[in-house]
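Continuing the series of single-chain predictions for the mutant panel. This is the parent chain; the variants come on the following pages.
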Amino acid sequence: MPKQATLTPAGQRLVDTLAQTLSRYPRLTVFISLVGDKNDPPTLRQQRQQLLTERFQQVAQIAPTRLGVLQSGSLANQSALQLVITDP
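Parent structure:
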């Protein structure tokens, strides 16, 4: 059975902290790196990115800001998400 991406308790805390921070600082650029196991298949990395993207979009709706730009890319065994948060 293939691995499924899940949000760890640390990941959930990151999302919660980001929501609190965004409510205080409406103009913010956030860089997040997702580092996976080097043996993880690319599909698992993509699932992780999708999961965090969905969670951060939820945060952007909760906080008095909006998700302006979302870019994804990968470097070696590392995937990165760049979220640019702007005023509505």
